[in-house]
Design goal:
The longest helix has 25 residues, at 310-334. Helix 12 packs across helix 13 (348-363). 41% of the residues lie in helices and 18% in strands. A five-stranded mixed β-sheet has the order 6-5-4-7-8. A five-stranded mixed β-sheet has the order 11-10-9-14-15. A three-stranded antiparallel β-sheet has the order 1-3-2. The protein folds into three domains: 7-97 and 402-408, Arc Repressor Mutant, subunit A (Orthogonal Bundle), CATH 1.10.10; 99-213 and 387-395, Nucleotidyltransferase, domain 5, CATH 3.30.420; 224-379, Nucleotidyltransferase, domain 5. The chain starts with 14 loop residues before the first helix and ends with a helix. The chain has helices at 15-18, 29-43, 48-55, 59-71, 135-150, 155-158, 176-179, 183-191, 194-202, 211-222, 282-291, 310-334, 348-363, 384-398, 402-408; strands at 45-46, 75-77, 92-94, 100-106, 110-117, 122-129, 161-168, 206-210, 231-236, 240-246, 249-250, 265-267, 273-275, 339-344, 374-377. With 409 residues, the protein is an alpha/beta fold.
């Protein structure tokens, strides 16, 4: 695994991450700090006694760790909670201003740059729409947008920017025909070290990850509600992409492109096999709108308000749902999945519609001998890719294996 990849996205066990409880051994303080921060993030606020009970660390060790994290500005002391017996309990929570992270989503039609705080709240953002992405345009975009973002921070806060994550499709030069982009300009991605160039522009460590995998990572770190241990994640962008979580960990695969669901063969309306992104993607909706004489340009500007006629929207949702159902069935025959989550660059009501129609399409298939996962909506929404990008440096510096945190409970 690349040293630039965050612990969150590790798909290989290591000795520290496999440890079910904290350790008082010398030299492991960094791991214990991450364990404490991960537990506080999961529970919103915890007292010293709670963390000692969850981790098996001594009360003295927990006190030392929490004092250090408070001194470093990463934890905030809450109001004492007085019980009937003993000293009052003091809950500690994450300090929003404790650290900041940048997330850059490089899409096939647009780029988004966000800055989040330690809680994952977006403090500022910038967007650029284009016909196709080029390295020069993306580096220029970041160089132009970053100063305004940092202007919102004090001098001390600027020193707490912990890095930039980049979420982008891999091998962009292979999508020339679908994007309608000049081959020569897209070939520039082959030899450019975008990671190094952005590190030079920003002055912070930069981490690169597949865009749909990053969106899945955002669900894992910032998602709300019940978090299944094993789930397949679909994200609707220009094309459809995916991510896979196994045993509470984001699974990258050998090349970092695991669960790249777009080329997955599914049955089309004519009974012939086609790729999933030929049924379920925004590029399909774009083509259907153009064929109906409707302008699709606004689709890439905002995910909140689509101006799509009802017949076109319904036809697209049905087509996408049938494709997703076939893909889910194929995945479920190979993996034991608790859930499938559907998200994307779309209005929440459209996401709900796609999810419902997918549930209905899946129920019409022959499911004999297959344990079907629950199909439900993702919880992060349209900004999942940029938030997932920002989650990479956050995880790299401050989080631990999600399983270790769960076993500590």
């Amino acid at each position: 695994m690349s040293p630039h990849q965050a612990e969150l996205v590790s798909d290989k066990p290591n000795a520290e991450a496999a440890a079910p409880r904290g350790t008082n051994q010398s030299g492991m303080r960094d791991y214990n700090e991450r364990l404490v921060l991960s537990l506080v993030r999961k529970h919103s606020a915890l007292a010293k006694t709670d963390i000692a009970r969850m981790t098996g660390l001594s009360a003295q060790t927990v006190s030392v760790i929490m004092r250090a994290l408070e001194h470093d500005g990463l934890l905030l002391r809450g109001e004492p909670l007085r019980g009937k017996i003993g000293q009052p309990s003091i809950p500690m929570s994450l300090a929003a201003d404790g650290a900041f992270f940048l997330g850059l989503k490089i899409g096939r039609r647009s780029a988004d740059l966000v800055m989040i705080d330690f809680l994952g709240t977006v403090r500022s953002s910038s967007r650029r729409v284009y016909r196709y992405p080029t390295p020069d345009a993306l580096v220029e975009f970041v160089a132009d947008a970053l100063p305004d973002m940092l202007r919102h921070l004090t001098a001390a806060q600027r020193g707490r920017v912990g890095g930039m994550g980049v979420a982008m499709p891999f091998q962009l030069w292979n999508w020339v025909q679908a994007l309608g982009a000049p081959q020569a300009e897209m070939d520039a991605w082959r030899d450019r070290d975008i990671q190094a160039e952005l590190a030079h522009v920003t002055g912070v460590p930069v981490y690169v990850q597949n865009d749909a995998t990053s969106a899945c990572g955002a669900e894992l770190v910032f998602g709300t509600g019940e978090r299944p241990k094993d789930f397949l994640y679909f994200y609707f962008g220009t094309f459809i992409g995916g991510g896979l979580v196994l045993n509470g960990q984001l699974f990258l695969g050998r090349s970092g492109n695991a669960a790249g669901v777009g080329p997955l063969p599914v049955q089309g309306p004519d009974g012939q096999m086609r790729r999933l992104f030929d049924s379920a993607s925004m590029s399909v909706l774009e083509s259907m709108m153009a064929a109906a004489g409707e302008s699709p340009d606004h689709l890439w500007e905002s995910p909140d308000h689509w101006q799509v006629s009802e017949p076109v929207l319904q036809a697209w949702v049905d087509l996408a749902a049938e494709g997703l159902a076939g893909a889910i069935l194929s995945a479920a025959t190979l993996l034991e999945l608790e859930a499938v989550l559907i998200d994307g660059w779309m209005p929440p009501k459209v996401r709900a519609m796609v999810t419902l129609r997918t549930q209905e399409a899946l129920a019409r298939l022959d499911l004999s001998g297959v344990s079907m996962p629950q199909v439900r909506q993702g919880t992060v929404g349209a900004q999942a890719r940029s938030l997932g990008a920002a989650a990479i440096p956050l995880s790299q510096k401050y989080l631990i294996d999600q399983n270790a945190a769960a076993r500590a409970i």
